[in-house]
Amino acid sequence: MGDITMALRSAQSGLLSNQEALNVVANNISNVNTEGYSRRIVSFKTVSISTGGGGVQIADVARAVDEGLLKTLRVENGQLHTHMSQETILARVQELFGAPGDDNSIAHLMEEFNESIELLAITPEKSLEAAEVVRRAQDVLNKLKDMSVTIQDLRLQADQDIANEVSHINTITAKIDQLNDSIIATASIGRDVSDLEDQRDLELDNLSKIVDIRYFHRSDGDVVVFTKGGRTLVDTVPPVVSHTAASSMTSTTTHAEGDIGGIYVGTKVDTNDMTNEIVEGKLKGFIDLRDSILPNLQAEIDELASELRDTFNQVHNRGTTFPGAQSYNGSRIFIRPSNQTMTLAADDDVKLVLFDSNGDQSKVTTLDTIMRSSSYGSGADTDGTWTISEVAATIEDWLQANGAENATTAISSDGTFDIALNTTSLNLAFRDETSSTNGSTHEDVVISYDANGDTVGDDSISGFSNFLGLNDFFVDTRTENMWESNIVSSDLAVPAATLTFYDATGSLGSLAVSASTSITDLATSITSNMTNITATVVPEGDGSRLRISHSSGSAITVTQGNGETLLTELGLHVSDAASASVMSIRSDIVSTPANIATGRVQWDSELGSAGEYFVSAGDDTNIQALASLMTTTNTFEKAGGLASKTQTFSVYAAEILATNASLVAVNERERQTQETLVESLQFKSDSARGVNLDQEMSDLLVFEQAYAAAARVISVIQNMIEALERAVS
Question: Regarding the domain delimited by 482-574, which CATH topology (the fold level of the hierarchy) does it fall under?
Fold first, then answer.
């Protein structure tokens, strides 16, 4: 009887075990289309008792998951979403920038601007052609501004996308933490946790699309999640990840300078900012757009704009309108004009000529002559080095003594050099020459500019009018409160120097820089030791710029000691950031296009007793030079993703468009490559993890037959017991 009973129990265990196996198969089949569901695999084990076999029982119902493959898939999926997150924004930039041949592209508009100048050069006295130059120049500026505005809008959008994804991270990590708790609690009472683990895997999949994650499992079923950089996202209590989106964005708004908030894990302190550590996922894509890709494009546009401004203005300042001008408003800002000085190179001189309404010479002198005269200004300055204030006072006295009794020449409250004749009968123009002799060769004078008044020249500028910015065509609203270096290697070690910083109040202090100091340490030292001065290292292209700014927005000057080369090696200059956004055409040229400087002050040795200067309405000398400028190659500094280049303005503009198109194409190509890899890994993972209906039907038949066989055994044993009962009754 004992053997029969044991057989009955064994058959019963087979019946129950195969019933459970059938239930697992049914669950697999019903979840064939459920996202994140992992196929369950039933394992059996023999029940052993002291007298022999005791039947069978379910050893384990395990998920069919290849954890190693799954980790690889999540890493590669993060890379895929890096590229996918950039597609929409890059497409919008491409739509705005267009191709070089498009009618509204910056390259095409630059060509049209050049053509309008060439037409004016044919008939410089024509007002219609002059108005066309202004219109085409305005088209170029409008396009540059539109490109800049769009880039900054897209940077703002990318930053808002970062904030949204950070919010998603907190939602996901909270779910993972809850699932961790549920898995631990459920497993502790011996219940199946496969469904909970599937849900957790699904959340890990979602998290890997946003940020690079790494993870490991503890023995109790808990999972710990952290970034590749080591920031813990899920553990006992998940930290809050935070990012405050910027409310606005400009060309000078950067994460490096602290204008854009970080992505903080836990408390909002710099050491908890993981922005620069993220290497995969949507966050990486958006961060690269906001801090690298789009700023690089902006830098290229600003380089185009600033080079156009500076080179065009230099030539425009060599010329004059007919019959000269009755007022000038300079563009260079002098923060301490009573201390800052200028010195003309040996023999160089500047002619100051007053003309009547016909363009005929009324009075003429040279800058050197009146500066050395005791009749003007505060007296004779015979050493050849003159303060900017003294130059203004001397010119004012000479103008007043030669027919413009009410003339004023002064440094404005903004620090610019302004001249007003305050008469309608005379007009003023300038001509740089190679000597003080009348009729000498017309050539830009070379000016040594001492920005700090220490008797040592800090900069060399060509052209008197260009130095002061008296006859600029393009103007902007920069206040010179920000200086920056050229793009330099991030590991550059600077030479020893003593830097001195100035604003309108005077010296802000000096800083001794040791040899081999890195630009990062230099920036830290400047910020720590200088009053109202902040320095940061801003990434750009394949290097960085040292950026120095005044905390209150005041204009500043930075100088170095005599013979030192630190500033020279860095290429430190007034920042051109945002140039494309703030440039405009001088207002009087917009209202009166005839104010374009088409001609130059000319010399005729046959006029008067010993020759005279004159200006004429039909003179095309300067407009021809401007036309030549637009078709001549110009050196563009390294900016954004473009190396230093020597090209025409139109070709450089086309380079910017080509660079953007290349970014779009490369991102698309890398996305497709990564997508193929992810699909391959996903297929392998699904093959191991997903439900295969053919396999399930095969298992169904096996378990069905085993169940039927166990039931048959029970039926046979039941008949045997009944026969035994009949025999003994």
Answer: Alpha-Beta Plaits (3.30.70)
